[in-house]
Write a structure and sequence with these properties.
Chain lengths: 426, 328
């Protein structure tokens, strides 16, 4: 009986153990729930790129990748449960695609020594690597995004927004409230008036907010939305006949499904994007090696869409960091602490992007011990009624505004949590 | 006329329209609760399921395509035809009737005579089950719903109010359509329950199901009937809300807005659901207009419940609910 029990336990452990040679990139995805429309293409892009590396290159540095998925439904508690249930699987880096989950994971991943990559979301001041040793938010963060939008508006208004009104329509959550501080600072600096309009989860009801916009007629409406909030906002803007070219979403409010239901009537609506759109050689490779081979995470219909491309871009950045870690440590089978080193030494150049089949997908940037945030550059894109078209090249944020805010907020976090500067010691 | 008063009038009108949309969801709850004493937690998910099914049929999508493709290694997603809106609505009604039959046959038939809390828990299970089935059947992506309903600002109201008050009111054509449809639906439901044999059977079961059984009314049949009607109401609510925002998971959350409406209007009154919806719609809109900006906005969700709780203090059975008299 004891022998039988031993065999059963051994078998269970063997079944549950990760394959020794895998590089594990857990995907805390959401394919269900109110935010699934955004979560699905991102998760597909992330998983498909890793599958491409396995199929085409035999993994990264000769080691196969693995992307175990855990469904969070964009729910913070479930996100934490997902982290707890997958972290023992040899996880190299987490990308929760949720600011709420990110806030909960920052202390946990730091304590566990596992890096957290929150590209374009999460806690903005995590860009300060001196304080947030295991959190990376390159290539940009919310404060960069707010600054990029204002810079673009300054460009369009001969360098002055004096006397103009900008309404911030935001998801009433940790995510939606992130840019307020930056926009308040920018409003004081550039002399525009900032009005704030909160929209409760999930964002299905915005009638009152858009009545207010119709009454007050702000010069611009900037949206920090996600999920159904985006579609409803675009529809309401069309309903009240707000000039769509003056309605600008951040990079989480500019996917195809955000505007497709309104279609041609939404033409003119603009949004940021942290990654370039358009045909790239990597898509043909994914089609051939992943989708046609029946290995795609989804049905393949999202290939090339805004959020699929972003998920793929996130996977590319993770893969390049893993490759860098392998080079630094001279081993192919890296662990989470080595991955962190790789992320901190990441150098994304045009050559690297081109070699990956995605030339110019993002800005060139270098990560350092102090700077985990990248350049913060973003492009402006516009919905032409049928598709998103790129309007501008990568626009830089105003670091003189965002950097002091990052320093101030991270210093406060360091003080509250007794964190010593990590870079000073190195 | 003072500018703020004009704005308040516009907010009030829009609040009334929004209230009708809430009432559409609340009606489904009332129908089932009145006939069976079951608080149907799944009503919101039924609206989602009905709307997903409607769009799926309209666009000629293959149900359970992902499952079929996964099992058989095929790559089919569409039948290759499109179904006209009216026919698709009729087919969806048939699906909702079939759903009602299955729910009664496999769930509630076995729970007759159980405590209300058991029945309530069963509907929670049903909600999660249906949510999963919707996902499996039609996928989680956002679907566009177009059944030909008008949408956008009503120009006549805009121009008329501008000439009269100096400010053109915004009223969404979709909200006007929803109001008309809700009115027809309520009149239809009242007429059905008053003047048809089935309607009288429903009322008999609602009054006293033991007595109804004793005169030969089939409880099973009436419950299937009631769940079918609730399914049709869910379809109407799904169409209205889905036309606004696309058909997606969030539709199931609109049920949360029906709860304060029911608390206020009463769980057993169809007119109560309408009046309750209107009060909640106007109340939350005016509160957001007058107080919202001072306290950070986004007050609609919680204020609806505060309003309902205030009413509950003074009238626990709701405005139109039947007074509960228990003798010990």
């Amino acid at each position: 009986m004891k022998k039988l029990a031993f065999i059963a336990v051994s078998a269970a452990i063997a079944a549950g153990s990760p394959a020794a040679a895998d590089l594990v990139f857990p995907s805390l995805s959401y394919r269900t729930g109110p935010y699934a429309a955004g979560g699905i293409p991102f998760a597909d892009g992330y998983a498909d790129y890793m599958t491409l590396l396995n199929q085409r290159d035999g993994g990264i540095g000769g080691v196969m990748t693995r992307v175990p998925e855990c469904e969070t439904a964009y729910n913070t508690e479930r996100g934490v449960e997902c982290y707890e249930s997958t972290r023992g699987d040899g996880a190299l880096v987490y990308q929760p695609l949720s600011t709420g989950i990110t806030y909960q994971l920052i202390p946990r991943t730091t304590a566990d020594g596992i890096p957290l990559h929150t590209m374009g979301y999460g806690r903005t001041s995590a860009a300060n690597g001196n304080v947030f040793s295991h959190v990376f938010n390159y290539p940009g963060n919310y404060w960069d995004a707010a600054s990029v939008i204002v810079n673009q508006l300054l460009e369009e208004n001969d360098g002055s927004l004096e006397g103009q009104t900008i309404a911030l329509l935001y998801h009433n959550s940790a995510y939606g409230r992130e840019p307020i501080r930056t926009l308040e600072t920018l409003a004081a600096q550039h002399g525009f008036e900032l009005s704030q309009l909160a929209v409760d989860h999930p964002g299905q009801e915005q009638g009152n907010q858009w009545l207010q916009i119709r009454r007050e007629r702000p010069d611009y409406v900037v949206m920090w939305g996600w999920g159904v909030m985006n579609q409803v906002a675009v529809q309401e803007a069309v309903n009240i006949r707000y000039p769509m070219e003056n309605f600008i979403g951040n990079w989480w409010a500019g996917a195809e499904h955000d505007v497709a239901s309104v279609g041609a009537d939404a033409a003119g609506y603009r949004s940021l994007n942290m990654n370039r759109l358009g045909d790239m050689p990597v898509f043909a490779e994914i089609q051939e090696h992943v989708i046609d081979a029946g290995l795609a995470a989804g049905d393949g219909s999202n290939l090339g869409s805004v959020l699929y491309t972003r998920g793929m871009y996130a996977a590319f950045l993770a893969a390049e960091a893993a490759r860098t870690a392998q080079e630094i440590h001279g081993v192919a089978e890296i662990d989470a602490s080595m991955m962190r080193d790789g992320m901190e030494a990441l150098d994304i150049t045009n050559e690297v992007m081109e070699a990956a089949g995605m030339p110019g997908i993002g800005p060139e940037f270098t990560v350092t011990c102090e700077d985990h945030g990248g350049t913060g550059m973003a492009i402006m894109q516009q919905w032409d009624g049928e598709a998103w078209v790129t309007l501008t090249d990568f626009i830089a944020p105003d670091d003189s505004v965002t950097q002091p805010l990052v320093e101030e907020d991270s210093a406060q976090y360091a003080e509250e949590n007794g964190i010593e500067p990590q870079c000073a010691e190195s | 006329m003072p500018e703020q008063l004009v704005f308040a009038m516009e907010v009030t009108l829009n609040g009334l329209m929004t209230g009708v949309m809430y009432a559409l969801v609340a009606l489904g709850f009332v129908l089932i609760f009145k006939a069976s004493g079951i608080f149907n937690y799944a009503q919101g998910v039924m609206a989602l399921f009905a709307a997903m099914t409607l769009v799926g049929i309209q666009q000629g999508r293959v149900p359970f395509a992902h499952v079929i493709n996964e099992i058989f290694g095929t790559d089919i997603h569409y039948f290759g035809w499109e179904v006209p809106a009216l026919l698709a609505i009729l087919l969806t009604v048939i699906v909702m009737i079939a759903f009602a039959y299955l729910v009664q046959r496999f769930v509630f038939k076995h729970l007759v005579g159980q405590e209300p809390i058991i029945l309530f828990m069963a509907t929670i299970g049903l909600a999660y089950f249906l949510e999963g089935v919707s996902d499996l059947m039609w996928g989680s992506e956002i679907r566009n719903l177009d059944v030909g309903l008008p949408q956008g600002i009503n120009d006549w109201i805009d121009v008329t109010t501008f000439e009269a008050l100096g400010y053109g009111f915004f009223i969404d054509n979709l909200d006007i359509a929803a109001t008309l449809i809700a009115a027809i639906l309520v009149m239809g439901l009242i007429a059905y329950s008053q003047y048809t044999k089935n309607g009288r059977a429903m009322r008999a079961v609602a009054d006293d199901h033991q007595a109804a059984l004793s005169v030969g009314i089939s409880l099973n049949y009436v419950w299937v009937l009631v769940w079918s009607l609730a399914g049709i109401v869910a379809l109407v609510a799904g169409i209205m809300w889905g036309s606004k925002s696309g058909v997606q998971f969030s539709l199931s959350l609109i049920a949360l807005k029906a709860l304060p409406v029911l608390m206020l209007g009463g769980f057993t009154s169809i007119p109560g659901a309408i009046i309750g919806g209107l009060i909640i719609g106007v109340g939350e809109a005016l509160f957001e207009f007058a107080i919202g900006p001072m306290i950070g906005g986004a007050t609609e969700n919680w204020f609806a419940y505060v309003l309902a709780l205030v009413f509950l203090v003074f009238r626990p059975q709701g405005l139109f609910g039947e007074k509960i008299i228990e003798r010990v």
